[in-house]
């Protein structure tokens, strides 16, 4: 599996999910904007610096992991199962699935770190 393609597409997916949540007025706006900032900045740093010999990739991975942990903490604090209406349970499951998709960057970074450095 090519790490570059997975990472780039995953960051695009994360921004799309955040834009969807903003459009549907889900959660606090500032939380969604901070998460978009994390994903876009990580995407830009990676795409602008990959392939350069002077790019400290290990430092980038640790910083990105820390940023994604912050994004997940914000998402968990922003998401509430109590807001799922009884009549719209299907939509609640879709929103829950979208929130769970946000764990993918963190999981993949941890798998990449353990594969590369273990």
Automatic annotation (TrEMBL):
Transmembrane segments: 6-22, 29-48, 60-81, 93-113
Record keywords: Membrane, Transmembrane, Transmembrane helix
Keyword Transmembrane helix: yes
Domain of life, source organism: Bacteria
Protein name: Uncharacterized protein
Organism: Candidatus Dojkabacteria bacterium
